[in-house]
Each structure stands twice: as C-alpha cells, then as structure tokens.
Amino acid sequence: MKSTCRVVSGALLALSSACTSAPMNYMVSHGPAAASERSLGWWLLIVSAVVVVVVIVLVVAGAFYRPRDRAGESLERTAAHGGLPWIYIGGLIIPAAILIVSFGLTLGTLHATTRPPTDPAATIQIIGRRWWWEVRYVDQRDPTKTIVTANEIHVPVGKPVQLEISSDDVIHSFWIPQLAGKTDAIPGVTNVAWLQADSVGIYRGQCTEYCGLQHANMAAVVIAESPVAFAAWEQAQQKPAAVPTDPEAAAGLAVFQKSACATCHAIRGSDALGRVGPDLTHLATRLTIAAGTLENTRGNLAGWIGNSQSIKPGNDMPVMNLPPDDLQALLAYLETLK
Ligand code: CUA
Prior knowledge:
Immunoglobulin-like; five-stranded mixed β-sheet; 12 strands; elongated
C-alpha cells in the first residue's frame, strides 16, 4: 500500500513539475493578458466539471431510487407531487446563473485582452510566412532604423508592447500561450493585439492555425529582458551588418552575393536585398534557425544551407550545392552577423 502511494504521489509530482516547466502550458501565465485568460479557463474548467458530476449523480440517483409507482409520470403529475420547483431551479435558474456569470467573465477577459496599451514600449509588426514569422520594429521617424528579424521577438520586461499581426500568404495564427491568447494572421488584414511579460525569460509560441506541410515547425519565441538589455539589443539591431575584415568571412560575403542566397535574403549593409526568406542582417544573434526547428550552431547552419529540404520539407529554400570551401567561407561570414 505504502509503495503504491509512493508511486502515485511520485507520478503526480512528476506531472505537476512537467506542467509548470512545459513552455506551451497555457494554465501558467507570465503577463496580464494571459492571466485574465487563465482565470477564465480555470473557472470554465471547474464549473463544467462540477456540472458534469452533479448531472451524473442525479441521473444515477434517478435511475436507482425513483419510486416504482411514479415511473413514467407526466410533467403535470410531477407538478402535482410538488417536484416542479426543482425543475425550475435545476433546469432553468442554476444553468442560467452559470451561463450569465460565464458570459460576464468572458466579456471581462475580452476587454482585458483586446484593450490596446495606451503607451506601448514598442509596436511590432508580425507577419506570418510559410513557415516562419517576420518580425519588424518600424521606426516611423527614421525608417533606416527599422529592425527586421525573424521568429524572435525581444520585449522589455514589465511593459506592454503592441502587436500588428498579418500574413503574407495563407492564414496563420500567432500564439504565445504564457503571455497572450491566439490572434489570427490573415492576408490583407492587420489584427492588433498586445502582450506584456512580467518576468525576464524566453516564452515559446507556435503557429496555431493549420497552414500547410510545416505548420508544426512554425515556432516563435518572445525574449523578455530588462529595459537596459532591450535598448542595447534595439541599438545593435538597427545597425547594418559590419563589413567583414577576416579574409575567409570576406570571401563568404562574396559567395553570399553571387549565389542564390542574395536573391531571397536581405543583409542590410550588403547588396543582398531579397524578401523571400528571413532578413539575415543579425542572424548570429538568434537562438534558432528555421523558426525554432534547429539551434543556431555552425553545424546546423551548414546542414540547413546544404539541404534544408531534408530538415523542413516543402520550405522555399532550394538545395544549395556549394563547393566545400565556399560553404565554409559562407559559414564564417554568417557567424560575423552579430
Ligand atoms: Cu503557420 Cu500554421
């Protein structure tokens, strides 16, 4: 008996720790938008569970304890036996009260999640592409300071940021479960949402509208950092890529510009202005490549450039047959894009 208890409590402990550390667990919130959704989620879960249990108990009780002489009696006869108030209470008043309270709480949550921040710390455009997220920090006063990156959204901790979400191809849906609910990314439409991270950390998100072959490999992360770290990141990202001084990296830049790379990718500060794939100006600062599919390491980049189709079939990047020396030079150059 003791060992069974130990196994059960161990399993519960493992389950609860797995839940709290699971990055997509929407029952954990780290910001006000997610917190109001989490409270509503718990209310709906608990109230539904209670209703299901009460109904099952009543059905079972009714099946077993109904007096024989009253089986199959009409509503009029039930009323005659004094049962009508229970039908009104259990069938009308209690369900109506639960639905009205749930409706009120849902309206409150809607208000909290759609309320745009009055003074956002940043306005960030998020554009769904098959199958990655373009992320743009548009500087209205000085367009040369506009930041373009992919799949990683830096935000200052404790401050709301406004998100302008759209799509370049099909319908996607942007979702960072522990920070904010789902917002559809629709071509030709800009949906405004907001989020705020209350503690420093990395929050994983996922495209949550089926958008084709690599829907599952369309992740994004929000990186919440101190306002000082965020300002430093912003300043660094606004700069164009540095011209490489190392001979191998310089050769890599030449490879980039003369090969198919520059047709699809942009690197500010070079001649590459492609808009098909992610902007690579500060590629080396990113944690992952291919929208969260691979860690951003030299080896993974080499594999990705060589044959991305074997890693993420169906993506827009062609198989590149670069000579080994060119590939090494290109990798050396990409590593300088800090
Ligand atoms: Cu994009 Cu699913």
